[in-house]
Amino acid sequence: EVYFKNLSKLKQKEVMEKNGNNHKLRVCVATCNRADYSKLAPIMFGIKAEPQFFELDVVVLGSHLIDDYGNTYRMIEQDDFDIHTRLHTIVRGEDEAAMVESVGLALVKLPDVLNRLKPDIMIVHGDRFDALALATSAALMNIRILHIEGGEVSGTIDDSIRHAITKLAHYHVCCTRSAEQHLIAMCEDHDRILLAGCPSYDKLLSAKNKDYMSIIRIWLGEDVKTRDYIVALQHPVTTDIKHSIKMFELTLDALISFNKRTLVLFPNVDAGDKEMVRVMRKKGIEHHPNFRAVKHVPFDQFIQLVAHAGCMIGNSSCGVREVGAFGTPVINLGTRQTGRETGENVLHVRDADTQDKILHALQLQFGKQYPCSKIYGDGNAVPRILKFLKSIDLKEPLQKKFCFPPVKDNISQDIDHILETQSALAVDLGGTNLRVAIVSMKGEIVKKYTQLNPKTYEDRLELILKMCVEAASEAVNVNCRILGVGISTGGRVNPREGIVLHSTKLIQEWSSVDLRTPISDALHLPVWVDNDGNCAALAERKFGHGKGIENFVTLITGTGIGGGIIHQHELIHGSSFCAAELGHIVVSLDGPECLCGSQGCIEAYASGIALQREAKKLHDEDLLLVEGMSVKKEEVVSAAHLIQAAKLGNTKANSILRTAGTALGLGVVNILHTMNPSLVILSGVLASHYVNAVKDVINRQALSSVKTVDVVVSNLADPALLGAASLVLDYTTRRIY
């Protein structure tokens, strides 16, 4: 034992000499409220666990010491940290002036504390006004500052405070790649920036409390089930207090109407917080049977509550940051978090000006389960931060140096270039081929991979994963950042769950297939799935003739007949995800049999399969070939032969194509009379052969009020892949109410 102790001391000495330090690094961690302590506590535990390298001093101030906010300093004591100093710095008040006075009071009290502690470095978190006082005091007293979570973007005055602290800080620990780039753009020294991830994620991603039901019962009651309650956490917006109070009233009204058990946490100490508490009491929230109003929940228990909630609502950064680790649905209200990077689980209600709008958002989000997001961390932030602290050389000059860029155009700061690099992985599952492509934000297919579509489910899924992994790796080489995976497939699809419900006969073993889960788990990316016809419509909406058009219909004319309907700029799926099965509009009661089992469908007349059937009949009767044509013995007769024969003057082939065009035209007339779109887009290999016939039928058969509709041929080379990509590119740039 003595031998190993001596060996440990020797190793400690070697590390200290290597880092140029001859003493332990004295670290002061200052915490102001319950929120910043959840981020600082993992770092404090890490520092405490390595006493051979660090001395830890803890300073507590701000709302930690106020009874109205739960006296949260007690949780620091419960975590077995010695609090060196308690500073009462909050000036009670209802307006912005109270915040200013609180900063002033902290500036008066902090110098004496820092003179006594003489820390080598102070760790400051975030963007609160208390943190600004800490950073200002330390900077003016020549104490090095390590700032946690700099470089992020959000709404309200917090943005300005966060960036002000960044300019005062000597070292920076950021959570995301974007935040790192923002710090570099703010002229901070790249060598003093650590991309570590959020420290709270170290605890979040390892949280495995099997007894979470007891926590839920403690805070919400014995009769509450998982995924059947709401957590609400809303703070005043100091740049528009009146509006934020009104929004809080509307939120409470919506929650009362929604009639689910709800845990409401008291707001932060900010101008307007007392008015929000009065609103809660005016509406009787503390005595309402569906509500539990609390000042504070310990972080370990809070993360279990949000992890198993049906939804979280409010404007707390916790909703857009930490909750994503569990895939819990979040409704982000107002502008307080504008600019934050968010996962798929967050639905923004920017202008929450009506109760109905908030209620509708609750109906959309409650009870869903999204893929877990690791935007803000991978669970290894603290080891990185400790290593970074050990690397600090106290002999280096204290004066900060700013890295100003050269005064010239730089493509890395050009928004067009940034948008070009944002890309999607697009997957097209056809009857014959399986294709994967990297598609840029502008609709450029950067790289495409094609393989024969396997016949079995297992082989097909294995090949999809293999091709996606290969494409994702290649994306790095071509400077593309993959935002997600979009999949276009035949058959009926539930896009909400990412499940293929029923397949077409062209794709075998492809019913009741969950595509989202295995692909998302393998690639750690969000995945969207939709029917190929719907994808074609989305491709037109984003990249083609449908761009900016409110109501239009896309018809795919290929092996089969499919399509998609855009109504008021939105794709229509229908109550059972069966909308826009346009190929199965019946245009004749005694027409040819369709693959769906019915008779007289458009697809039975105008699809590639239907034309091939008619071509074979003519060929068998020696009525297909005309002068200038030949079909080799081993060659399969196809629709292309029928079209070629018609062009060379074969009257029977011409008659078949006219009938097919008429059937398609009648189907379009039915669509015009039902949906009244302003545009019809014909897509697919047969579109150019049908467009004139469709226009003729509209002129003859349609009501005069819809005859003005535009009928055009798609100019998109690959609508299936572009549509799959648009699933990703449209939705990862966030849905906004």
UniProtKB/TrEMBL annotation:
Pathway, per record: Amino-sugar metabolism; N-acetylneuraminate biosynthesis
Name of the featured protein: Bifunctional UDP-N-acetylglucosamine 2-epimerase/N-acetylmannosamine kinase
Organism: Pterocles burchelli
Binding site for an N-acyl-D-mannosamine: 492, 504, 532, 581, 584, 603
Pfam families according to UniProt: Epimerase_2 (PF02350), ROK (PF00480)
Residue sites binding Zn(2+) per the record: 584, 594, 596, 601
UniProt xrefs under SUPFAM superfamilies: Actin-like ATPase domain, UDP-Glycosyltransferase/glycogen phosphorylase
Annotated signal sequence range: none
Domain of life: Eukaryota
GO biological process, one term: UDP-N-acetylglucosamine metabolic process
Keywords, in A-Z order: Allosteric enzyme, ATP-binding, Cytoplasm, Hydrolase, Kinase, Metal-binding, Multifunctional enzyme, Nucleotide-binding, Phosphoprotein, Transferase, Zinc
Family the UniProt entry places it in: In the C-terminal section; belongs to the ROK (NagC/XylR) family. In the N-terminal section; belongs to the UDP-N-acetylglucosamine 2-epimerase family.
Main localization of the protein described in the UniProt heading: cytoplasm
Cell location: Cytoplasm, Cytosol
Reaction(s) catalysed (UniProt annotation): UDP-N-acetyl-alpha-D-glucosamine + H2O = aldehydo-N-acetyl-D-mannosamine + UDP + H(+); an N-acyl-D-mannosamine + ATP = an N-acyl-D-mannosamine 6-phosphate + ADP + H(+)
Active-site residues annotated for this sequence: 532
Domain UDP-N-acetylglucosamine 2-epimerase: 53-390
CDD domains in alphabetical order: ASKHA_NBD_ROK_GNE, GTB_UDP-GlcNAc_2-Epimerase
Keyword hit for Acetylation: no
One cellular component (GO) term of this entry: cytosol
Enzyme Commission number(s): 2.7.1.60, 3.2.1.183
